[in-house]
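Attaching the record inline, Q. Sequence:
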Amino acid sequence: MTQTFLYDAIRTPFGRYGGALAGIRPDDLGAHVVRTLLERTPDLDPERIDEVCFGNANGAGEENRNVARMVTLLAGLPVTVPGSTINRLCGSSLDAAIASSRQIDTGEADLVLVGGVESMSRAPWVLPKTERAYPAGDLTAVNTALGWRLVNPDMPAEWTVSLGEATEQLREKYGIDRERQDEFAARSHHLAAAAWDAGRYDDLVVAGPAPREGEPLVRDEGIRPESTPETLGALKTVFRKTDGTVTAGNASPLSDGASALWLGSEKASGLLGREPLARVAGRGAAANEPQYFGHAPVEAANLALRRAGLSWSDVDAVELNEAFAAQSLACLDAWDVDPQIVNAWGGAIAIGHPLGASGGRILGTLARRLVAEGGRYGVAAICIGVGQGLAVVLENVTTTEGSDR
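Structure, as predicted:
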């Protein structure tokens, strides 16, 4: 068995739903980050790329089902480089990294271009096919941007509640009040803004492709540094009108964006002309009841750490995708971890959550944080609709001289 290393990671700024990236097709967003990775590795012969593996949660529109192959062709890679798309909803690009790391560990590949993309703004409306010709009734168009659609009637009703209602049930189960959620959300905005101002994202984010009209997006569009627990506490709840706590302010927004990274064996260093940032030390997947999807990262991360031969006391940095503040807090309460090392450069509540791209974002951010902060081990974890969670443990393999720690 060989080992898998992360060599580089980038992403676009994440745009708000209907915002600066809404005019750009998802396959063009994906091709943009692929081209950028290639530009950052001028010594690489593209023929040496063994595989392109992308995550995408929708697949029903301009992604054309296999967006990995589409971005490979649009980016100008050789037609001989194969591409595969993975769909594990919110965890799609983290799953792409996990699958690719297994290819590398077994010696089937030395270099894989991993990524993910989602345009929630451009997710199509779909109509179900009729069971017979010429139906007399109306058909309802379904928005594919988020959540359950065309639900099988045999699914138990408690499983198919909205993601927001599921989060309300989760916070009731674990006793998480509105005040904690709004404090956590305000923290996300403040830390994201501070990280941008400090230049943390200068090497992690490439300006988005320019729309037909206007300038390219250069910074995450959803960050609101002026947010406070008080201003967020004044927002109306969305999913429950009387006893609800989940609002647009303490949940991640619908977003557009793409991420990409290089995974490879030790041999990939020679191909790319650069040294690795981190080693994949452990992987974990877990599942539970669909309505408690937000808690699934707990066991996924615990499993990844056990497989790495580590415990939470060994962890120096955590990147947990913030689908909802309540969901994130439920995970943190279950882990023996210092909250201050979690999402220190901001999280998805501020940055955004384009489903297929978020796994790549947290994995790349984790690697860069470990290098910048001089930590050795970190965990990237993400919750997934319909009751799943994924996690990856990274080990910093760079020298820590000159770090912030």
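The longest helix spans residues 178-197. Residues 5-123+253-396 form a domain with the Peroxisomal Thiolase; Chain A, domain 1 fold (CATH 3.40.47.10).

More tomorrow.
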